[in-house]
Design brief:
By secondary structure, the chain is α/β, with parallel strands linked by helices. The chain is globular. The strands form three sheets. Strands 2, 4, 5, 6, 7, 8, 9, 10, 13, 14 and 15 form an eleven-stranded mixed β-sheet that branches.
């Protein structure tokens, strides 16, 4: 489904490591026994199966998540992956009786839109599709969070999470979870700090920031350049790292950065995001 993406924007963040945001060179040697023990990622897809009264879409959405753990330099599946398929229906406009006896309630998701100050919005087909995409996305994030929480509750090895860890209390506070964000619709800097971040060279990171997104948990975060951006745009090879908001995490920012840099080989090619994607995350997606 093609929907409007979030508008790019800047959000200032508190610098907690230095007096002001600056670049720091990362020593790329990884200690024996260090590094990530596993990788977590999820996927989602959705298909419109019909249009009720030619206006309201009914969508089948599938989400899946997996942790692939590293054992003797090979990646295998940790526990059972999660796979869920549900039907997403705007029940404010589609009679529930149409689906009675066809699917159990737990496989039905109501994506009705509250109109707010613009009631007509809830009647626009693309608006309903956008709400459906968000609902499928939330289900994927829920599946990923379920696996992440299980890992953090039972394992002491570091988990590379593809995306933010700030959505759940347990994972956001876990010393074993490291979120690596590839998309930058939101940049947590402005002015000179933004220039510093966008000017990072390969193997350099920014000062550590405290990021507290709305309705999510506070985490420590920093930007890290994985690959030389020469000849590319300013976001090439740039990721944002999230870890628990603690003194321990602050002390280990360089070490965690070394681990992430080490995951740049082998590359995740031919994926178009290979400049920011680790091989372990690509392995998760290929498995799913």
């Amino acid at each position: 489904m093609a929907v409007e993406a979030e508008a790019p924007h800047l959000v200032d963040a508190q610098v907690v490591e230095d007096a002001k945001c600056r670049s720091r060179r990362v020593d790329q040697r990884v200690e024996e026994g260090g590094g990530f023990g596993a990788f977590l990622d999820g996927v989602q897809e959705s298909h419109t199966v019909c249009w009720y009264e030619q206006l309201f879409p009914i969508v089948v959405g599938t989400v899946a998540a997996v942790i692939r753990e590293r054992v003797d330099r090979h990646l295998g599946t940790w526990r059972e992956p999660i796979v869920r398929r549900r039907l997403y229906v705007p029940f404010a406009h589609v009679p529930r009786a149409l689906l009675d006896g066809i699917l159990p309630d737990e496989l039905l998701v109501d994506v009705s839109v509250s109109g707010g100050d613009a009631p007509s919005a809830s009647l626009h087909p693309l608006h309903v599709l956008e709400e459906t995409r968000h609902a499928v996305e939330r289900d994927r994030e829920s599946a990923e969070a379920e696996l992440a929480e299980a890992w953090c509750a039972s394992e002491s090895r570091a988990l590379y999470v593809d995306g933010s860890i700030s959505g759940g209390e347990h994972v956001a506070r876990a010393s074993t979870a490291v979120g690596v964000i590839k998309r930058h619709r939101t940049l947590y800097a402005s002015g000179d700090a933004l220039r510093t971040i966008l000017g990072l060279g390969r193997g350099e990171r920014s000062s550590v920031l405290r990021v507290a997104p709305r309705f999510r948990r506070s985490v420590l975060s920093w930007y890290l350049r994985l690959r030389d951006p020469t000849g590319h745009d300013v976001l090439w090879g740039l990721v944002r790292v999230e870890v628990a908001d603690s003194e321990r995490s602050l002390r280990h920012a360089d070490e965690i950065s070394r681990w992430i840099l080490a995951e740049g080989a082998p590359t995740a090619m031919p994926d178009s995001r290979w400049d920011r994607m680790s091989y372990g995350v690509r392995n998760c997606e290929e498995f799913l």
